[in-house]
Amino acid sequence: MSRKKILAGNWKMNLTIEEARNWIRRYQSVQKKGYLMDVILFPSFTALYPLSKEAFKAGITLGAQNIFEEENGAYTGEVSGKMLVDAGAKWVLVGHSERRTIFGETDDRINLKVRQALFSELRVILCVGETMEQRKAAEHQEVVSQQVINGLKEVHQSDLPHVVIAYEPVWAIGTGQTATPEDAQEMHAWIRSCLKDEKGETVADKMRIIYGGSVNSENATQLFACPDIDGGLVGGASLKPDSFLSILRSI
Ligand code: PEP
């Protein structure tokens, strides 16, 4: 089954509106033609709306790095799905390891966020991944399958193609230590087999599973050539348009 590849950049808490605009201008000046893949950027909330027109012209889709699980109300400091759509977001990242560890987001909360995002007509990148301790204890498959199953609980079958799973081993995020293509492929195939058992073969074949964790232009070609790796989620190397573009070219 051929699945459209994705290259996504997670800027985290970096880049002002002006810096983000310059990023898009540089990207557009180099990247004239469209690629047959989805290119998605996750800027800060504050840069979403100011970037929306220029990103569209550059063939880039925007996403938000977080969402709140309720539709609206007295939740000071939170941002709803409707607000994200209003600001130009088409996607949202849910369950990133920084949200799980620093902000204590549990699988149950992540599941509510996934469902709220889909209800708001946003597409979702659901991040999952094990720690090094869990891998060393041979618990990585169990941990990741629970994150996938719990994250997708009660998600309607027809919404599943709007969800992408990002396998991001926690030990590979921001460390310069990437999973080998063999280990990454093994985990992606494992995730696809869990999706098949839980949700059925047709949808499991359609769903895209992308890899994240210290991706750069040197390791991208081999990683993205694996049969179950449908693209990448890039953190650090997405902050400079040239390094993001060199990953894009190597896919
Ligand atoms: C991330 O934070 O999602 C990520 C993959 O970061 P990095 O590429 O810097 O490891």
> Shape, please?
globular
CATH topology: TIM Barrel
Low-confidence stretches: none
Termini separation:
18 Å
What order do the SSEs take from the amino end to the carboxyl end, as H and E?
EHEHEHEHHEHHEHHEHEH
CATH class: Alpha Beta
Main beta sheet strand tally, sense and closure: 8 strands, parallel, barrel
Q: List cofactors, ions and other ligands.
A: phosphoenolpyruvate
Give the tally of structural domains.
1
The total count of helices amounts to 11
Q: Can you characterise this structure?
A:
Helix 2 links the parallel strand 2 (37-42) and strand 3. The chain has helices spanning 17-30, 45-57, 81-86, 97-101, 107-119, 132-136, 140-151, 181-199, 201-206, 217-224, 241-250; strands at 5-10, 37-42, 61-64, 91-94, 123-128, 163-167, 209-212, 231-234. An 8-stranded parallel barrel has the order 1-2-3-4-5-6-7-8, surrounded by 6 helices. Helix 7 (140-151) packs across helix 8 (181-199) and helix 10 packs parallel to helix 11. The chain has a single domain (5-250), classed as TIM Barrel (Alpha-Beta Barrel). It is globular. The protein contains 11 helices and 8 strands. 44% of the residues lie in helices and 16% in strands. With 251 residues, it is α/β, with parallel strands linked by helices. The two termini are 18 Å apart. The model has no long low-confidence stretch (mean pLDDT 96). The chain binds phosphoenolpyruvate. Residues 10, 168, 173-174, 212-215, 233-237 line the site of phosphoenolpyruvate (PEP).
